[in-house]
Amino acid sequence: MKKVLTLVTVLLLVFTMSACKSDDDGVITIGANIYTFNDNFMNGVVRPELERYAEELGVELDVVDSEGSQATLNNQVDTFISKGVDVLAINLVDPAAAGTIIEKAKDADIPLILFNKEATVAGVMDTYDKVWYVGTDSAEAGIIQGQMMLNDWQANAAWDLNEDGVLQYVLLKGEPGHPDAEARTLESIKAFTDAGIAVEELAIQPSTTWSTTEAGDTMAAWLSTGWADTIELVVCNNDGMAFGAIQAMDNASVDIPVYGVDALEEALAKIGTGDMNGTVLNDGVNQARATIDLAINAANGVDILDGTTWVIDAPTGTKAVRVSYVAVTADNYSDFQ
Ligand code: BGC
Ligand code: CA
To answer: pTM surpassing 0.90?
Structure first.
């Protein structure tokens, strides 16, 4: 009898432990960050949905601001681990520093979901069986943006201001080395060259935090160098930077076609008023939901896609869920408002 009782006790203990995770109250705790709360998209779209959806699903979510510093993020991860969170949801500051975070998670045997900034070191995702990525196919946004700009260029002969058949453009780039920024920069212009249209890059300027203010200052400088009648297109890696460019154009009383990525509320409004020509929906709401869904499954130790409709892009073997981008123009912007 005593043996049976002991067995029952052990079984009960095992059961209680697995249902409760590390918390006494049985609630899953997710330790998360945003690389900087100054980012329009991450702080304005992704973070609110992470918080709302976590609450809806009854999990505890702690989101900290890494203030654009990978060193700060490393410390925040150490703190989360020492607090005993069940799972980490991390927005890298430096996409090349994924290995450091993965190693910390692996040493503590805590599952890790990376989101929005994909690791750039080859093979690093294979160093831990409990790490996954949630984001997009970086090139897709650039391909869509490029196609949109090309269609408009071909439909508006007057956009070729100097009538030389060549597109003179400026490009406001996001963070150098960020897969989204690199792929968007490449693909958006490739749409023109692939279509046999010659291009001339007047200038390109990156911004580490994809900053509206920096983009505004850059655009103002370009306009004041005498390019107000020369620039035929303003290509922006995201909407936040497009807003800065538009402000600078307003100040200088010029109106040059401008395109972004993200489809922030303000961008949709600007497309409505004709201040912006197009954007690409970066579905931060679904990226946030996928991040939480995967985090919960990882914490519970069940199949990572259990009970969800997400898919892992198996062919590339990157253990990633990629949410699709959608073109947003004057024809369909109101569908997204
Ligand atoms: C978004 C940008 C954002 C960046 C942050 C990108 O996917 O389009 O707006 O600044 O992620 O990592
Ligand atoms: Ca031209």
So the answer is: yes
